[in-house]
Design a protein that fits this description.
The protein is about 55% helix and about 25% strand. The protein has helices at about 25-40, 45-60, and strands at about 1-10, 10-20. A two-stranded antiparallel sheet has the order 1-2.
Length: about 60
């Protein structure tokens, strides 16, 4: 999966970057974010947070 960023200024590309993620990278990122959010939110339902974070990450990286 790829995450791209393009910055335009006066209709000219001034910066273009791209990150490539493997499924393993996404799983690790999901777990890290879930863990930190659970520390801050203390919901007691880590599975709900994990599903929400995974959905958000997949939505972001799947848009091309």
């Amino acid at each position: 999966m790829k995450l791209s960023k393009i910055i335009l200024e006066n209709k000219k590309v001034i910066e273009k970057t791209q990150l490539e993620f493997t499924s393993s990278d996404i799983d690790k990122l999901t777990e890290a974010i879930t863990s930190k959010l659970e520390e801050y939110l203390d919901t007691g339902n880590q599975e709900l947070i994990r599903k929400s974070v995974a959905s958000a990450i997949n939505e972001i990286v799947s848009k091309d």
